[in-house]
Design brief:
The protein has about 400 residues and is of the alpha/beta class. About 25% of the residues lie in helices and about 20% in strands. Among the domains are: about 180 residues, Rossmann fold (3-Layer(aba) Sandwich), CATH 3.40.50.1000; about 70 residues, Trehalose-6-phosphate phosphatase related protein, domain 2 (Alpha-Beta Plaits), CATH 3.30.70. The protein contains ten helices and 16 strands. It is an enzyme of class 3 (hydrolase).
């Protein structure tokens, strides 16, 4: 599913060199089994044998460092009304200002974005937590505002729009509640979307389902055979962490998440060790880090970047010079999508963060409030410049 066009895109400047961020744990730290379940799909990754003499605990393999770095403390930021400078606790945050020179605000650079989009069809991809909703202590209460829902609905009126979340697809659909969108849950391992042009492509795993109105829709679930394993892992993690105050385990169907946002930091090593010990028995699963969350996922060659590629392909919009994908997200898992757009020189990644971070994005926004401002600006720009083009190609929509 190669989305790279044979024609160079004229709209993006040469990408700024970015150091590759550390996402999750290197596969050499995971166990290897020759007798494990075999899978026929070409999506699965082979795992090398663990090196002799490697110490097998979380303090030696960098997990704790990754847990600390995955969720840097958020400073209270305010914007100087007389300039673009950002001040933190009345002191100029020089690091953030310097970072924004490299990754400018998508609002301040809005003319550059729309200039690139003048002769192109925008396709919008959005993360949920930290992008459309604020980060909160209880993930079950991460609600998007009515104003944000209205903004997303308006964007979807003019541009194909998808939500790609680490949450389960059903959960994020329930939180968003808009039938105009495409939904990809479990970091893109559970996609409900349009029918692919060439369904004879036998490396894609499609299944049929029905939407809320009873109409047939298509599901793409490249890790479907892992569902029983994830259910088992979820039950094990619930049991092993039940004595840790503040720990919360969620089953996102194709991945299991252990939240430690409300866990005392002195107990983080216990959380990490629980996950570490469990993975010894599941060589086909791996760990990734999110914002104060550890996620256990199948070891397959699939992520949010692959989900973006798949949705573009399904919409018939891949490999085209007249398409401009925009992806807005705030987490490490969104970096896979930013990387796809940057390396393919085909669109813009926008990182939502009030603090400097390593990123593959082109632009930045501080918080969901600025995300909403950017989305509304896109809608206003489209309405002022005419909305003659339909938001979605002439194909069946999926809720």
């Amino acid at each position: 599913m190669d989305l790279k066009s044979s024609h160079a895109s004229p709209v993006l400047a040469d990408p700024t060199p970015v150091n590759k961020p550390r996402l999750g744990v290197h596969s050499s730290l995971l166990p290897y089994s020759q007798t494990g379940t075999t899978f026929s799909s070409g999506l699965y990754i082979s795992i090398p044998r663990k090196k002799p003499g490697m110490v097998d605990d979380v303090s030696s393999n960098g997990w704790l460092d990754a847990m600390l770095s995955s969720s840097p403390p958020r400073k209270k930021l305010i914007k100087d009304m007389n300039s673009d400078a950002v001040v933190a606790d009345e002191t100029v945050d020089h690091a953030y200002i310097s970072w924004m020179l490299k990754f400018p605000s998508a609002i301040n650079a809005f003319d550059q974005v729309t200039s690139a989009a003048k002769t192109k069809k925008i396709v919008m991809f959005l993360d949920y937590d930290g992008t459309l909703s604020p980060i909160v202590d209880d993930p079950d209460r991460a609600f998007m505002s009515d104003a944000m829902r209205s903004a997303v609905k308006s964007v979807a009126k003019y541009f194909p729009t998808a939500i790609i979340s680490g949450r389960s697809r059903d959960q994020v659909y329930k939180l968003v509640g808009l039938t105009e969108l495409y939904y990809a849950g479990s970091h893109g391992m559970d996609i409900m979307g349009p029918v692919r042009y060439d369904e004879a492509d036998n490396h894609l795993d499609y299944g049929s389902s029905s939407d809320k109105q009873g109409k047939e829709v298509k599901l793409f679930q490249p890790a479907r055979e892992f569902i029983p394993m994830i259910n088992e892992v979820f039950r094990t993690l619930v049991e092993s962490t039940k004595g840790i105050k503040g720990a919360k385990v969620e089953n996102h169907k194709f991945c299991a998440s252990v939240h430690y946002r409300n866990v005392d930091e002195k107990n983080w090593p216990i959380i990490a060790q629980c996950v570490h010990d469990l993975l010894k028995d599941y060589p086909r699963l791996r760990l990734t880090h999110g914002r104060k969350v550890l996620e256990v996922r199948p070891v397959i060659d699939w992520d949010k970047g692959k989900a973006v590629q798949h949705l573009l392909d399904s919409l018939g919009l891949s490999g085209r010079d007249d398409v401009l994908p925009i992806y807005i997200g705030d987490d490490r898992t969104d970096e896979d999508a930013f990387k796809v757009l940057r390396e393919g020189n085909q669109g813009f990644g926008i990182l939502v963060s009030p603090v400097p971070k390593e990123t593959q994005a082109f632009y930045s926004l501080r918080d969901p409030a600025e995300v909403m401002e950017f989305l509304n600006s896109l809608v206003n720009w489209k309405e002022l410049n005419g909305a003659e083009a339909a938001a979605v190609p002439d194909r069946k929509r999926a809720s």
